[in-house]
Amino acid sequence: MILDALRAMARRWYIVLAGLLLTAGLTWTAYQSTPPEYQARGLVLLLPGANAVPAGGNPFLALSGLEQPASIVVAYFASAAAQAEVADVSASADFAVQLDASTRGPVIAIDVTDDTADGAIATLDFLTQRVPEELARLQGELGAPADSIITSMPLVVDDEPETDNSGTIRITIAALALGIVVTGIATFTLDGMLMRRRTRRKARAASFTAEDSFAGVGTDHDGTPKSAAPLVPEETAPAEETALADDPLLADLADEEFVTVSDGQETPDGDGTSSSNAVAEDDETDDAATATPGISRSARHRASDPDAESPDADSPRVGARAGRHR
At residue 21, does pLDDT exceed 90? Predict the structure, then answer.
């Protein structure tokens, strides 16, 4: 499976290269479009009024019961008015004002997140100042005595924000994974299509080769059939010679008529005339019919003597030869 995938990627390396380039561009774009975030945190502690602490007492021992006033202050910062105030400081800032869950006491936690470090610090400072102001406003509207006024103090406030790259990393990894998956799908899909097309071509070429082998026609390297060479017609043998070759009886008769003269001796032919006369007649016939190619000597002999009769099957010579052949 892995080897097949590697082979497919090697065959379609150009698709893999293009996909990797596109993936790199997509990853860089995702990284640039999601810059890191900056977070800052502050803690504000509420303190009891002067009349809640006995003379010579410790205010930290009298923190019980201040959770309720802290919850009222936190509720105000969840309102639209408070959000509008923060938007005037930094439009891109997100903040959360709530009771700190890590401590059991009137501790208000302020968390700010912004796209810039300066925006995060500015928003945190603004909210840290607004908590005691809002606390004093609420008590002033209620007409609380001066010696019972609840105050506050900052416990810890960040001077430098922390950089949060988690969102950037998630988006970058998602873009990278998407690019790799799309590249793999495109590579394997195209490779499968091309391999199937190549298989069909080979099958078609094999079928053409099998069909053309009967006719002597091959195929080109791309599978297309070659043009068949024109067949050269064979020279047609004269009908009479063909008949003589096919019929043994007629062939013997022709051999009997095609006598040759050697050493000046005369050989009688079938009709009782001397072979010298036959040769003389044949020479005259040859001189007259030399210009006509494809005519046998027997045909020329008959042409020179139209009154000559064909050997009869009843003649003793013909019967004898027929008997020998049978």
Answer: yes
